[in-house]
């Protein structure tokens, strides 16, 4: 069994959704007992902490095979560090004898383990190193964003799996003023798009015609777009600018907050919006998307630090 097969065993039949970003006592207890029993080879004791539904789905023989293979490839756990909650799972960076993994555990209201997931830790593609600011002023709404396909259709494409599509909605949740038949009718159209951080422009495309709303240009998917390289070798794509609005060119060095262009509806876009994502190399065909956390922003009226928005969030930067 290779590593990929071994670590893809996941179960999450029913679990409590954890919304706090500080470790709960239940999670702390679960990871402590998991480490103790795993290091001792007492896989039956880990199995005993499963919920009844999870025991049925993952019998003892399958649980033992999974954990034995994990131990064979990585050895015992030296330490774990809580990182965050993700889709109901407590996420830990776990240092083992032969490498580092991301270990995720979910528990129910009775503190029984209902989910367990392990994957190789990839620090270069886990999250952004460069501090990020929202690339606009005022309140915008995340139309696509998050870790699941329901939240974010981009997740199936490696280089844009952590992308955001962001629009401006009115109080009724509508992105246009009247009938939405023209670009000028959309609140986002023509709005300033700003540099989210300092960096160098490595690609700048302008001159692509804006679409009629609802009719997309599949020949040049990004439309008018900018690729910004940070000092940490991260590459930020901002796409779908308004035609002839891009204010920078390849080789320019820009500062955070500098005007890059205006929001448009060019490329593979059905309405005026901003596409934003970070990737780990410049070449799109070899790139992997990096999860983006913004340094400081207001989310649904609440100030947050180091937050990655999800579908439906109304977000506004520190102005």
Task: Supply database-style keywords.
319 residues, alpha+beta, Nuclear Transport Factor 2, Chain: A, 6 helices, 16% helix
Explain what the structure shows.
It is a single chain. The chain is built from six helices and 18 strands. By secondary structure, it is of the alpha+beta class. Strands 6, 7, 9, 10, 11, 12, 14, 15, 16, 17 and 18 form an eleven-stranded antiparallel β-sheet that branches. Strands 1-5-4-3-2 form a five-stranded antiparallel β-sheet. The protein has a two-stranded antiparallel sheet with strand order 8-13. A hairpin with a 2-residue loop joins strand 2 and strand 3. The radius of gyration is 22 Å and the shape is elongated. The N terminus is likely disordered.
Summarize the helices and strands and which ones pair or pack.
Elements: H1 3-6, E1 11-12, H2 25-40, H3 43-48, H4 52-57, H5 60-74, E2 77-86, E3 89-96, E4 99-107, E5 113-120, H6 123-126, E6 139-144, E7 164-167, E8 192-194, E9 199-205, E10 224-229, E11 235-241, E12 253-254, E13 259-262, E14 274-279, E15 289-290, E16 294-299, E17 302-307, E18 314-317
Antiparallel strand pairs: 1-5, 2-3, 3-4, 4-5, 6-7, 6-18, 7-14, 8-13, 9-10, 9-12, 10-11, 11-14, 14-15, 16-17, 16-18
Shape: elongated
Relevant CATH superfamily of the largest domain? Glucose Permease (Domain IIA)
Number of domains: 2
List low-pLDDT spans.
1-20
Termini separation comes to: 52 Å
Q: Specify the number of helices.
A: 6
Determine the CATH topology of the largest domain.
Answer: Glucose Permease (Domain IIA)
* Helical content class: 10-25%
Q: Count all strands and give the number.
A: 18
Level-1 CATH class name of the largest domain: Mainly Beta
Q: What does the main sheet amount to?
A: 11 strands, antiparallel
Order of helices and strands: HEHHHHEEEEHEEEEEEEEEEEEE
Please state the structural category: alpha+beta
Mean pLDDT: 88
How big is the Rg? 22 Å
Provide the CATH architecture of the largest domain. Distorted Sandwich
């Amino acid at each position: 069994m290779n590593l990929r097969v071994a670590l893809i065993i996941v179960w999450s039949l029913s679990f409590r959704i954890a919304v706090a970003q500080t470790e709960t006592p239940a999670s702390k207890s679960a990871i402590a007992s998991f480490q103790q029993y795993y290091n001792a080879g007492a896989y039956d004791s880990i199995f005993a902490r499963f919920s009844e539904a999870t025991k049925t789905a993952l019998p003892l023989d399958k649980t033992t095979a999974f954990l034995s293979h994990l131990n064979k490839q990585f050895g015992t756990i030296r330490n774990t560090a809580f990182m965050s909650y993700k889709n109901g799972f407590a996420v830990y960076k776990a240092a083992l004898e032969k490498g580092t993994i991301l270990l995720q555990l979910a528990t129910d209201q009775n503190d029984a383990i209902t989910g367990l997931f392990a994957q190789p830790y990839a620090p270069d593609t886990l999250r952004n190193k460069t501090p990020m600011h929202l690339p606009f002023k005022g309140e915008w709404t995340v139309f696509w964003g998050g870790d699941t396909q329901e939240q974010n259709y981009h997740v199936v494409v490696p280089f844009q799996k952590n992308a955001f599509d962001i629009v401006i909605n009115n109080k009724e949740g509508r992105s246009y003023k009247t009938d939405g038949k023209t670009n000028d009718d959309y609140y986002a159209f023509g709005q300033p798009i700003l540099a989210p951080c300092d960096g160098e422009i490595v690609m700048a495309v302008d001159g692509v015609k804006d679409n009629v709303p609802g009719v997309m240009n599949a020949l040049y998917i990004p439309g008018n777009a900018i690729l910004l390289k940070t000092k940490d070798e991260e590459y930020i794509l901002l796409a779908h600018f308004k035609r002839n609005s891009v204010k920078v060119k390849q080789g320019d060095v820009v500062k955070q907050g500098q005007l890059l262009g205006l929001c448009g509806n060019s490329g593979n876009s059905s309405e005026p919006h901003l596409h934003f994502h970070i990737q780990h190399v410049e070449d799109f065909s070899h790139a992997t998307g990096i999860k983006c956390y913004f340094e400081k922003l207001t989310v649904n009226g609440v100030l947050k630090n180091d937050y990655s928005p999800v579908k439906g969030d109304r977000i506004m930067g520190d102005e």
